[in-house]
Amino acid sequence: MHRRPAAPPSSPPSRPPAPPRTAARVAAALTVCSVLLLCLVAVRWHPLLTLDGDISRTTHRWAVHDHEVTRIFRVLTDWVWDPLTMRLVCGAAAVWLIWRLAAWWTALWLAVTCALATIVQQAVKAAVDRPRPVWADPVDSAHYAAFPSGHAMTATVVCGLLLWLLHRCGPARALWRTAVAAALVSVAGVGVTRVWLGVHWPSDVLGGWLFGALLTALAVMVYEWPRNRRPELPVRRRG
């Protein structure tokens, strides 16, 4: 007696792919923090203004008396960590992605995110219109509104995106540690220089870090969103 082969079990109906959970959770947390700080700055919350003033007056006093450190910080903020320099680094990375890996989509994603960071930064500056610190004996000068710090935001976006792309490729341990250290020094260092030189309040720098990290997390969500395309970058696991 012959038995009929059992019919294969029916597969459950396909569901639309979900967004990357880790990036979504990070983006949600950063959104809350960014909006909260934005509101506190916009309503001129007195405790925040007091803390900003205390820190800024102290660092400005140091900047006026320590000419050597101030000179070094001006070089760093005007040339090394300047937003234009960061955008050029981002552009060079996009060119390398196209030239060496033919990763056109990744290069476009990188360039568009960097451009979007500039647009968001200028839009928030115009909306909040926060005045910069004013000193009787300034050591540096800057233009446009204060919040958020464009230097801090641009450095966070560029360093965050490049670090994330490098991590996907599974670099050697020495290279990865060097890249992380360089990114941390750049992001933290540019914030310190802006406050030291008296052109930003500390909360401006914090806002630049938060908005930059938020935009980076959203960009990662867009990149990792499931789509019918082959990955352009090699994904390796470090042993």
Automatic annotation (TrEMBL):
Highest taxon of the lineage: Bacteria
Keywords associated with the record: Membrane, Transmembrane, Transmembrane helix
Ranges where the Phosphatidic acid phosphatase type 2/haloperoxidase domain occurs: 106-220
Family matches, as Pfam families: PAP2
Xref: InterPro entries: PAP2/HPO (IPR000326), PAP2/HPO_sf (IPR036938)
Stretches for region Disordered: 1-20
SUPFAM superfamilies: Acid phosphatase/Vanadium-dependent haloperoxidase
TM segment ranges: 23-43, 106-124, 144-166, 178-199, 205-223
Protein name: Phosphatase PAP2 family protein
The organism of origin for this protein: Streptomyces musisoli
